[in-house]
Amino acid sequence: MNATPSPAPDSGARLNLSAGVASVLVALTLVLLKLWALGQTGALSIAATLVDSAMDLLMSAGGLAAIVYAAKPADEDHAFGHTSAEDLAALMQSVFILVSAGVIAVASLRRLLAVAPPEIAAEGAGALVLGLSILLTLGLVAWQRQVVRRTGNPVVAADSLHYIGDLIPSIGGLLALWASAAFGLTQIDSVVALAAAGLMVVGALGLGRRAFDALMDRRADPAVIDGIAAITSAFPGVRGYHDLKTRTAGSRIFVNLHIELDGDQTLDEAHAIGAALKREIIRAYPLADVLIHKDPAARRTPVSPEAG
Predict the structure, then answer these.
(1) Which residues cross the membrane (predicted)?
(2) 226 and 211 within one domain
(3) What is the pLDDT of residues 171-212, one digit of tens each?
(4) Number of Cβ atoms within 10 Å of the Cβ of 116
(5) Confidence (pTM)
(6) Nearest to residue 97, comparing CAs of 203, 189, 196, 193?
(7) Is 254 in the same domain as 139?
(8) Residue 42 forms part of a structural domain
């Protein structure tokens, strides 16, 4: 379980926001650079990374909007908050990525099957842009990982993993341009683009599945459930628990839990135990929204030694 103390809410929100803004700015910079490089080279491998960067821009903008919108407090119309906006945005993004990957795959296959080999120009300019994009991506990922370590925000964590995946087609594009310039192997460009399209499909399907599961109120990760159960069963004053239920919505985990307490204690004492347990669960899982019901522990009638 993750028991690392989270920063103050305002500080954590600012860190998450800074990671979101940085992601949008880097993605926008990469889109502009790769547009120029595509015009100079005509390389499909650069086209693939351009589309991927365009997807990054959309996803980063959606993630930033989700971070801002999901941070809004619950209101009369949204009693459980606004975090499902993250899942809706992710589901739409996954469909868009699938369509884009299909376009790239078709273009790659057409080039591979063409009689005349494709021409690639200005390999040096393209390689310079891809090299710069790799450096910018590495810098962004380093900052995102630092934010995740401090806040545990899953939106930033997912964005970081996505950018790490983007390094693969960029490195592949570099190799394709090098092979074209050094050996005239222009077909490698189409192979790299086709592989990048495949990676985009895999990522989109995973993203869409996670978003769909959250929208369908799928339970939290089993490790999280086990962690909550372990905290509850070992908590002072709690004699047992039952009906532990969880669901996810965006970056939030909603927890419903019944705990069994001494029925002879005062209401103040029972409330204090429940409130302390809630704080402990949230300390371990800062994105959890916890609702605890308090039940009197079942009384067990002692069995007489002579009975039976």
Answers:
(1) 15-37, 43-68, 88-108, 120-143, 163-185, 191-208
(2) no
(3) 766 776 676 666 666 666 667 777 777 877 887 787 778 777
(4) 6
(5) 0.55
(6) 203
(7) no
(8) yes
